[in-house]
Amino acid sequence: MKRLLLLFFVGSLFFGCSDEPDPGTPGDESLLEKYPGLDPYHILHPIEYDEMLEILEGPEVSVIYFGWSTCPWCEQYVPHFDVAGRDAGWDRIFKFNVRETRQAVEDPDTGEYSLVPEFQAIVDILGPENLVTTNRPLGCEGDQCQELPWFTVPSLFVIRDGELLAAHIGAVPGHTREDGTLPPLTEDQRAELYQILDDLFAVALQAQPQ
Fold this sequence. Notes:
With about 210 residues, the chain is α/β, with parallel strands linked by helices. It is about 35% helix and about 15% strand. The chain has a single domain (about 45-170, about 180-205), classed as Glutaredoxin (3-Layer(aba) Sandwich), CATH 3.40.30.10. The chain contains 6 helices and 7 strands. The longest helix is centred in the last third of the chain and has 20 residues, at about 185-205. Mean pLDDT is about 85; it is low at about 1-20.
């Protein structure tokens, strides 16, 4: 009996006690190559267009990232989105590749540009007044394009029932290319980004049903 108790005690030292937290479920592996700094246990969940629209107008509080992996700002920021979300206790960030959707077309009769219907539908839900125009949509030429409602990437939106609750749009101020290359975030820029993200996820958590 003493020997059995001893074996049980020794075994519990190796298997029964651990201070290591459970990392959770591994995230989508296909994103690890696209975003090299992403943790294998990330909480990003890729979605297609129709599902994205349903989520934007759905009754649950959702956090949605719009961008694409070849955008250098997206590549740098997305791992931080994931870390901030997990640190806040959030369990899922939806990811939609908006590159092919964020476009404008020219009317052959008037020469005026308008957003393609697929992107206009997104803008209508988020609210044009909530979006920022600092450049022009893909395919759009001329000064008129600066007046079209759209948003830069990476963008992170908190939404419920089609109501935008919080947003982070584009890069941290001052984080721009140098000689054609995007440098890493400085410590101050990183701190500013995490403050923005902490505030954003706090809004998401507070909007959850109690």
